[in-house]
Design a protein that fits this description.
Layout: E1 6-9, E2 13-15, E3 34-35, E4 43-45, E5 54-55, E6 66-71, E7 83-92, E8 97-100, E9 108-111, H1 119-125, E10 133-138, E11 160-170, E12 181-182, E13 190-193, E14 201-204, E15 215-221, E16 230-240, E17 245-248, H2 249-252, E18 256-260, E19 280-285, E20 294-302, H3 307-310
Antiparallel strand pairs: 1-2, 3-4, 4-5, 6-10, 7-8, 7-9, 7-11, 10-11, 12-15, 13-14, 15-19, 16-17, 16-18, 16-20, 19-20
Amino acid sequence: MRRTTVVLLAPLLAVAVLSGCGAGSAKSSAAGKSQSSKDGLPAVSGSYGSKPTFTFPTPTAPAGLKSQVLREGTGPVVQKGDLLVADYLGQVWGGKVFDNSYDRKTVAGFVIGKGKVITGWDDVLVGAKAGSRVLMSLPPDKGYGATGNSQAGIKGTDSLVFVVDIVASYAGKVAGDPKAVVQKISPSGVTVAGPLGGLPTVAVAKGTAAPKAPAVTLLAKGSGAAVTAGLIVVQYVATTFDGKAAGSTFTDGAPAAVPVSAGGNGTPFDAVKGLPLGSRLLLTVPGTNGQQAVAVAVDLIAQPKTAAETG
């Protein structure tokens, strides 16, 4: 759950914090099997991967940060600085659901433990295991603070409750396929170098014409599944067509989670649909809204499934 709008690939992508999907009234009775909770936390319906509902024991949230692991996963431990991939639902205590990924039927990705998300998430989710379902209640100072979040309808006095189904986490060192099969050289004027499975570099020759439309060049073909609509995990290095650095996940210390839309009207990453995971590619994007055109070396790392699909 991000604090603010975050640019995932400067200057290409700006992804909104909250979509508003799943908004509605609190439910007083849980559908399906309910898991009882402790420390004044609400009971939670359903199992890992299913959209939860809460039964609140009192009108007022318990004091301080409270959390409970409702299901202990058996996967790797989430480390500080990882890209956390999860399904989640957030609700004002006793009030409305302000966001959830279950209705969108795609996971979300957040850098965890580095102040990129609300404090309560950093405090609770670092150290949890993939495959876990985690319940937490956050006082305002562990959520959006005294200012709240007007976009989500959260007041500065609201306590928040979340269920988070942790699907996976990715460390900063994850890379593409070192055995990917080289396909072709970069387009004229743009050079991508560096070892497969390692750090790429991007150079744009002086005077190279900027692209007029987004384009993808497959540089090395991986052996993974073909990318479909949904969220993908990537590593990238970006350079403007006037030779300036424009962002790098390797510098940031964590891979990025970027959306690929079904209709092709979302982001430049929509052009990677059908390419195999593990591949390295060159993405060139024209300048828009005062931003320079960019050339981006991208390694396609993974396309995580939802918690329901992973079980």
